[in-house]
Design goal:
196 residues, mainly beta, five-stranded mixed β-sheet, 0% helix
Length: 196
Amino acid sequence: DKTYFYNVTSTDTLNNKNTTQTRVITLDTTFPQVTFISPQNQSYVNSTILLNISYSDENFNSIWYFNGSYNLTYTSSSLLTFPQGSTKLIAYANDSAGKLNSSSVTFFIDSIPPSITISQPQTDTTFGTNTSLALNFSAQDSNLQSWWYNIDNTNNISLANCANTTFNTSAGSHMLNVYANDTLNNIATTSVNFSI
């Protein structure tokens, strides 16, 4: 890329001269550079993420990004809240010569833990036996990964495929805790108290 200066001078046969103003031409064959610093192509457990776009060009003109619905002017890094699920952003930069370049990023947000419902045992229930007590529950999340429970905050017991089960315990008052997590390790828990 170079900058050139030129003017034109003309002379007639009687030696009359006229010269134009000096003009400047800048040849720009380099495209602007534009890159996402944040967010990156990954998963996030927080829906508020720093939007930070890096750009450079000797003859920089403007930068903006497309959020899937609108073109928005980018002025500086800022915290933005994005929806759950997959989001694609495209950043654009142009220069004064009209050269345009773009960069994109796709990221996933899951900041919501699973929901758990225990249907058995019901809270504050008293049982006459301490063996084969029913544990019936459901866990919901679009990205469920694992489930487990414990009694009185002791040893955790895994539950395969979110399946209901039975358990044994001693006489007395107890607290049953059921847990579920998703693939981004958002953990949920719910508890019931019961007696034998």
